[in-house]
Design a protein that fits this description.
Layout lengths: L1 H28 L4 H6 L6 H10 L6 H13 L5 E2 L4 E2 H36 L4 H15 L2 H15 L17 H39 L2 H8 L4 H13 L1 H11 L1 H4 L2 H6 L5 H11 L2 H29 L8
Antiparallel strand pairs: 1-2
Helix pairs in contact: 1-15, 5-6, 5-8, 6-8, 7-8, 8-10, 11-15, 14-15
């Protein structure tokens, strides 16, 4: 396993370079740049714009610009944000934690609900509870997350039960530790439900199908013939095999920590990476876009690596020898 992890890490390095190069070329290939907006400002002289272009090597060919960016990246410098007029890493540090909080809350809600509900539906196949869960799952799959977020915000505005956006209340700084935690939970309710509903519905359907397939296997029939308790058969023998495909999906879900909640962040005014990425793309803030894409790529590769490790840990038949 250790050799496999090292090999995967070494393979990931050129993949990240390829992702960053493609993103850089696509950003530069689109018409215009950030300084086109500055040229419309009469207070900014052409000499100032030319000095910025020389300072950040934006007057060089595309590949040469990329290698300058790559050189700075290897030294730990993510570049300079022209739109926010400050280093990229400072802005990302202030926003990344907020995105992780929201995405982690959605991840916990999704997996905490989806697996038990999928097992419950499989154990009561074609009964009323299975039909009810199937109906609710189809409703969840058909409801766009952004539309659900707007409905919940409208309900909150009329009921006054939950905050309408943001991450903290106005009086947040005057609260004690426990009150701050409760305030954060209240602000998390609407965006978490919005990003979790479709995922819960999808994973529940997958878990139900996997459990039904496993419960038909011969070793389950043999376990029942031996007189083992049904609870032990389901949760010790069947669940362990039925959950394996979901572990792989879990790896992909980790990569959604930056991208999956982006639209919900914008709608719910959550100060995370989603609105930051949208602003950077619209402003053609190249260094900010590159940092966002690089973080997403790293999370995708790390998520898949962790999924492989968890899969080998849960199923002793799986080995990565080649």
């Amino acid at each position: 396993m250790f050799t496999y992890i090292i090999r995967r890490i070494l393979i990931s390095i050129p993949l990240l370079f390829g992702i960053s190069l493609l993103t850089f070329v696509l950003m530069q290939a689109t018409p215009g740049n950030f300084f086109d907006t500055l040229k419309l400002d009469p207070q900014v002289s052409p000499e100032t714009i030319a000095r910025y272009e020389r300072l950040y090597h934006l007057d060089k060919p595309i590949l040469q610009q990329y290698f300058y960016w790559l050189k700075n990246l290897l030294r730990g410098d993510l570049g300079y944000s022209f739109f926010y007029n400050c280093p990229v890493d400072g802005i990302i540090k202030s926003r990344l934690l907020n995105t992780f909080i929201l995405a982690f809350a959605g991840l916990m809600v999704t997996w905490t609900l989806a697996i038990p509900l999928g097992i419950l539906a499989a154990l009561h196949r074609n009964k009323w509870i299975d039909r009810l869960l199937s109906f609710l799952s189809f409703c969840g799959l058909s409801m766009p997350s952004f539309f659900l977020a707007m409905i919940l915000l409208f309900w909150a505005s009329t009921a006054g039960a939950l905050p309408l956006g943001g991450i903290h209340s106005v009086q947040y700084e005057n609260l004690n530790g426990f009150e701050k935690f409760i305030d954060l939970l209240k602000h998390l309710v609407i965006p978490t439900i919005a990003i979790s509903l479709a995922s819960v519905a999808s994973l529940m359907r997958i878990m139900r199908g996997n459990m039904l397939d496993v419960l038909r296997q011969q070793y389950i029939l043999a376990a029942r013939a031996k007189g083992l308790p049904e609870q032990k058969i389901v949760y010790k023998h069947a669940l362990r095999n039925a959950i394996n495909p979901l572990i792989t999906i879990f790896g992909y879900h980790l990569s959604d920590l930056l991208s999956g909640a982006a639209l919900i962040e914008i709608i719910c005014n959550w100060p995370g990476m989603g609105s930051l990425m949208l602003t950077a793309v619209r402003a053609k803030d190249v260094h900010m876009v590159m940092a966002n894409v690089l973080l997403s790529g790293i999370l995708l590769l790390v998520g898949n690596l962790l999924a492989d490790i968890f899969l080998a840990s849960s199923d002793p038949r799986i080995r990565y020898d080649h």
